[in-house]
Design brief:
The chain is an alpha/beta fold. It has 9 helices and 8 strands. Strands 1, 2, 3, 4, 5, 6, 7 and 8 form an 8-stranded mixed sheet that branches.
């Protein structure tokens, strides 16, 4: 295959984005403790969530996969394990996070802005983004970029936090998000503000059928959301016809 992404490597240029500085500085500041904090705050359930998403990707037998907002690369590694015949490209706009991924030997790392990807049209069979679309300055623009780089018949998987439908579970979830999680995060990362930000973005991020409506407005055909953790995490799938 001759797609241009094959020759891309990590670069040091500052990436242009509408409002990148807080997100970039925040993730750069917690890069070294990011994995520990994720495993701790999810009670280890993040391993299961990534496994489920990787199996969904594998079910499509992709040749080329792009993992957006890859962070420290755990999902890219899970996909590579589930899809040994596929080429998995892992992209993120935060260089310190990519350095953590490189230490894990995540292959095909690219520093890239999710709102302006350095890939040709129709370069990938599957695009994934796990807990990263929330951090983009323009969700619709990020989704449209994913659509642009997908081939016909391709799939875009979004895994992110969502709001449980049960009022009782939702009340417990919000208590954890806003009262418990920031304190644990302060101990784990010394950056309470990073996880206060997390709680706020979860409250405002499109969830359930609202996310599907956003995907449809960007040109995708949608499958029903797949809910996990009592609805606190969802996997969305947009298909390119």
């Amino acid at each position: 295959m001759s797609n241009s992404f094959r020759n891309l490597n990590i670069v040091d240029e500052t990436l242009a984005q509408t409002d990148p500085e807080f997100v970039k500085k925040t993730f750069a500041s917690i890069a070294g403790r990011y994995d520990f904090a994720n495993h701790l705050l999810s009670g280890g359930m993040d391993f299961l969530w990534r496994y489920k998403l990787a199996r969904l990707v594998a079910g499509r037998s992709p040749v080329d996969v792009l993992d957006l907002a890859t962070g420290s690369g755990d999902l890219a590694l899970a996909i590579a394990k589930a899809c040994p015949a596929a080429k998995v490209v892992a992209a993120d706009f935060c260089l310190p996070m990519l350095e953590m991924a490189r230490r894990k030997s995540v292959p095909n790392l690219v520093q890239a802005d999710g709102l302006s990807l350095p890939f040709e049209n129709e370069s990938f069979d599957v695009v994934t983004v796990a807990f990263g679309l929330r951090n983009m300055a323009d969700w619709g623009a990020g989704i449209r970029e994913a659509h642009r780089v997908l081939r016909g018949g391709g799939a875009f998987f979004i895994m992110d936090f969502s709001l449980p439908e049960s009022e009782f579970i939702l009340s417990l979830y919000r208590f954890y998000l806003h009262r418990i999680l920031p304190g644990i995060a302060q101990w784990a990362t010394r950056r309470r503000d990073a996880y206060e930000y997390l709680g706020k973005t979860i409250e405002t991020f499109p969830s359930g059928l609202v996310m599907n409506a956003l995907l449809k407005s960007c040109g995708f055909k949608c499958e029903p959301p797949r809910k996990m953790a009592f609805g606190a995490v969802s996997i969305y799938c947009g298909l390119v016809e």
